[in-house]
Each structure stands twice: as C-alpha cells, then as structure tokens.
Amino acid sequence: MKEIFFCKSKVIFTLIYLCIAIGAVVFVNNDAFLYKKTVAEVQKSKITDRYIQKSQNMKKEKYYTQTLTVKILNGKFKGKKAYVTNSYSKSEVKTVRYEKKDRVFVSIAENNGDLVGKVTGFKSDFAVLLVILIFIYAMIIVAGLRGILFLLASVVNVGLLYAGLDLYAGGMDIMYICYAMIFLFTIVSLVCISGLKKSTAISITSVFIVVAVVGIIYKIVLACTEAPDYIMMEYVSGPNDLNRLFFMEILVGCLGAVMDVAVSISETACVLKNNTPDMPVKTFINSIRELGRDITGTMVNILFYSYFCGTVPMILVQMKNKYKFNYICRFDLPFELTRFLTGSIGIVITIPVTAVVAWFVLYRMKAMKLHSSRNED
Amino acid sequence: MNFVLFLIFIVLIIAIGGDRGVMSLVALLGNVIVFFSSVYIMKYNDPYKLVLFDIVFMCLLTLIYQNGVNIKTMSSLVSVVIVAVVLMYISKYIGHLGNMGGYNEFEMYEDTLMNLSVNIKINLPDVAVAMLVLGVTGALIDIAVAVTSSVYEVWKNNTENDEKTLITTGMHLGKSILGSTINTLWFACVGEFLLMFLLFRRYEYSFVSLINSKAFFDIIANIMLSATGCCAVVPVATYVFTKMTKWDRFAKHEAESTEENI
C-alpha cells in the first residue's frame, strides 16, 4: 500500500511543489509594498465596549467594539503603530471581527502625534493563493497527468469566460457570445478530460444536441407561461437584457452536468462495443439505459445541493426578519429552482440522446462505411 | 413557469428512468425536505452539527435507500463523512483567513437586502462554511460510489484480495471521473454567478482589487475547496474499502451472497 501512496515520483513532486508554494506564500505575505492603499497587520485586539442593539423588528443583538493595534506595512507611515477601532455584531452579517495576524486595509490620519483611523477592507489575497495552491496540489497528486490536463482546461475556460465578458462589455450581442462560449467550453473541457478519441466526438455531439433541446424547452415554456420577474435576481447591474442573460446562465449552468453524464455514457458505450463487437442493438441500448438510471439520481442531487446551498445565508436573514417561507420561495428561490430544473431536464435527456448518437456512430456509420467500400469493390 | 418545468422533469425522469427514476425522485424529495427543514431549524442551532447530521442523512438516503447495505455503500458512507469533517475544519480555518461569509460588497447595497435587519443571532461565516461542505457532499457521494463499485468488481472476481491491485483500480477510476465531476461544480458555479462576473467587469475591477474582493473570495474558496474535497475522496474511499475487506463481517457476508448466486 505504501508504494502506491508514497511512490518516488509523488515524493519528488511534493518536495518541488512545496518549494514553489512556500516561495509564493512568502512573496504574497510580504507584498504590501506593491499596494497603493495602506496595508496593516493586526497585532493586538482588545474588546473595549459591548452593547446591545435593538433593530426595527425588535431583535436584540450583541455588538462589540474592538480596538486594534496595527502595524503599518507600507506607505509613509511604514513600520509605525496605529490604533484603529472597529465594531462588529455577533452574527457578522455586515460587520467583520478582526483577529491577531489579520491583514487589513486602513485609512490613517495623524491626531496629536498618535496615528488613528479605521479599517476599510480585508486583504484576502493570501487566502486566495492558499486555496488555489491546495487545489492544484490535490488535483495533480490524485489525478497525475489527467489532473494537469484538467487544470489546463480550467485555465483556458477562465480565459474564455474573461474574453466573453470583455466582448459583452464592448457591446456585442450576448446570444452570439453565449453560443460561441458554449461551443468552445464544451470542446476544450471534453478534449482535455477524455482525450482525442471516438467517445469524445460522441459526447461533444450529444452535449450540443442536449443544450439545444434544453434551450428550446425553456423557450417554449417561457412563451407559454408567465415570465419571472428578472429584476429580483441577485447582482443585477442593469435592467436591459436580463432575460437573455438568464437564458445564458441556464445553458452554461447545465453544461457541466450534461458533459459529465455524456462522458460516462459514451465511454461505456465504446467499451461495450469494443469488448463485444457483434452485440445486438437492443442489448446495447438496454445496458446504456441501465447505466443512465444508475447515475441520474446522484447527478440530480449534486445539482440540487450546489445550487441551493449558496442561497441559505440569505434565506436565513429573511426568515429572521419574519418573512414567510412562502414569500421567500416565490420571490427569491424561483431562479435557483429554474436553474436546477433545467439542469435536471438536461441530465435526464442526455441519456437517450447520447445512446442514439453512440448507436449512430458505432453501428450506422460502420455499416455505411462497409456499404461504400463494397460499392467500390 | 417553474411548475411546468417541474412537470416536464417528472415526466421525463419517469419515462426514461422507469422504476429507478421514481426511486431517485423519492430520494430527491427526501433531500429537499431535509434541506429545507434543516434550514428552518438552523435558526436556533449550531450549523456545523446540523450539517453533519444532514450529510449522514443524505448518505443514508442516496446510498442505503437506493443501493442497500453492503461493503460498497458502507465504505462510501464512512469515506464521505471523513472527508466532509476534515473539509469542514480546513474551510473554517481558510474561511477565517480570508473573511468568508456575511454580505459581500454587492449585497451590502442591494435594494432587497437593504431594509432587512442584520441582527439575526446566527454567525453567518459559520453558516457559509457549513453550506460549502453541504454543497459538495452530493459530488463526494457520486465519486465515492463510483470508486468503491469499481474496486468492488475487482475484489469480487479476485479471490486473493491483493491490496495493491485494489488500490490501483480505485485510483485509476478516480482519475477518470474526477475531471468531469469537478466540471459539473464549476459550470454550475459559472451559471450561478455570471451576473456577478459581469459586475466585476462593469465596475472595472483591477487584478489587485479582484483578489482582495470579498465576493471574489467567496466564489473562489467555494470552488477550490469543493474541488479539493472531490480530489481527497478518491484515495480515502479506496483506502477505506481496502481496510473494510479485512473485516470478517463483510468477508462472510460476501461469501454467503456469492453462494446464493451460485
């Protein structure tokens, strides 16, 4: 067991990676000189005041005021100590509690020889670096070469997303960007995940068909029923083309799940056909259907949890404000629900679509080839 | 409109999935009920314990209810719970380092949230960490089941139970499904936060302000930590399975069931 988990190449990789990671961590830990804003490190924090605040819904809550002694790390006050006050509530919804070693942005003024001021923001670049480093390490150590390919695909995808947003900001029509992005996302991800082979072609084709079908179903349902109130969506920046943006969100959101199902089905289909080349069509379709039934349940669960967990903090805040659960469901959850339902519909129809595409590629195209070669003879 | 979509979904899943489709619908319904009732109870409770309970319940529902008690489901359950607990500790630490949870800079000024009282007596950073772990559990179960079932196939056909073969099989299968599962999470996330990315673009965030933005950290910590959990569950599930094959109970159980089959 040891030789697999601790083989030589993994140990060497870990050592090299550790060196790079430590270098990066040390650099980011000391990058205050790159910032224009004043950066400070909290050295001491002391709670100087406690009070209870009542809000309009008569809820009481404990508030604390803390006095922080911070050491300034850049700018003209570099190296000096300053005193900063900050108040936070127990639930930390809008306020933040700072502790020793936290890095913060401060605005500082001189007052009778002392430096005082207030905190303007939290410096989170170190934590961003840390999560990325941990993920890259885990991915490569577990998945090896495939992990590296996957990381490559992710980087390309992020670049594509950035380029797409750039084009949108430049005034281009969102629908063209959306279709182009779905096209490129699918090809890049699938080629990097499963390599250049026949099953990849099958899954790419079926993903395109499924996304088109999901889009059509959504459009038909939208035309027949009342449209949701898009202005209630989170992070709305302008009221102009929200319906099209939401359509794009739906298509991109279901893309990952559809790809996952399509890849597992098409790979199994190719393996089945390779192992028993003269398998009857009926057995072939039946085994694919069986596989599809196995994976639908868990895939739908993944989508449900990954969409709805993000909304819980907001639901909690609203419930604490005595909003009725009905109200929350009607006004805040419909978008999540639509995303989840369209994604699930996508997952379910991927199974027959991929089965048909695989049948076409593995059975019909072969028959057509045989036919044409016979004609040539 | 959601109702019509829901009807379409039900019709499709029953038409294509048959009785298994009905079964996964029941499991989904159970998950929905557990999820919303735990959100309701969370008003009064510690989110961590509640989420741990949720995770175990979810495993019971998706693993035991749909696949029965056997070495595959038991080892998946154990490994999912182990990974979830460890991930919870790591996320709590990193969430604290990066100030995760609470309103981000866009929500702070959003109309619908502006007139809500923020005195809620629940620590929102804790809720955010708990929800991160709960959100990835579905993916953890998916991977753990795939890994343990493939190892199980090898173990069943191999009387000598060579540990090395089992581990290699598990890791190999893990490699092949890891990418597509993480892709599911990543595209779901892009779909959910597309408008926020547009906001980043509209307010012309520079690189420096982006990596120090609260909204950005919330998203990236969510994706990266979830993906790390997915990676971690592959070796853990393989290891737990190989350990469990040594238990008499499962070995005996296995022998009996193969005799029955014969």
What does this structure look like?
The complex is a heterodimer of chains A (377) and B (262). Chain A has 377 residues and is α+β, with helices and mostly antiparallel strands. Helix content of chain A is 64%, strand content 15%. Chain A has helices spanning 2-5, 8-29, 125-169, 174-194, 198-224, 242-275, 281-308, 312-320, 325-331, 334-376; strands at residues 38-54, 60-72, 81-89, 103-111, 114-122. Chain A has a five-stranded mixed beta barrel with strand order 1-2-3-5-4. In chain A, helix 4 (174-194) packs antiparallel against helix 5 and helix 5 runs antiparallel to helix 6 (242-275). The longest helix of chain A is centred in the middle third of the chain and has 45 residues, at 125-169. In chain B, 52% of the residues are buried. Chain B contains nine helices and no strands. Chain B starts with a helix and ends with a helix. Chain B has one domain (45-261). By secondary structure, chain B is mainly α. Classes of the chains: A alpha+beta (377), B mainly alpha (262).
Q: What profile does the largest beta sheet of chain A have?
A: 5 strands, mixed, barrel
Q: Note the main sheet of chain B.
A: none
Count of all domains of chain A: 2
The number of helical segments of chain A is 10
Low-confidence stretches of chain B: none
Mean pLDDT of chain A: 87
Identify the quaternary structure here.
heterodimer
Instruction: Give the tally of structural domains of chain B.
Output: 1
What's the topology here?
The complex is a heterodimer of chains A (377) and B (262).
Chain A: H1 2-5, H2 8-29, E1 38-54, E2 60-72, E3 81-89, E4 103-111, E5 114-122, H3 125-169, H4 174-194, H5 198-224, H6 242-275, H7 281-308, H8 312-320, H9 325-331, H10 334-376
Chain B: H1 2-42, H2 47-67, H3 71-98, H4 111-114, H5 124-157, H6 163-202, H7 207-211, H8 214-244, H9 248-261
Helix pairs in contact in B: 1-2, 2-3, 2-5, 3-5, 3-8, 5-6, 5-8, 6-8
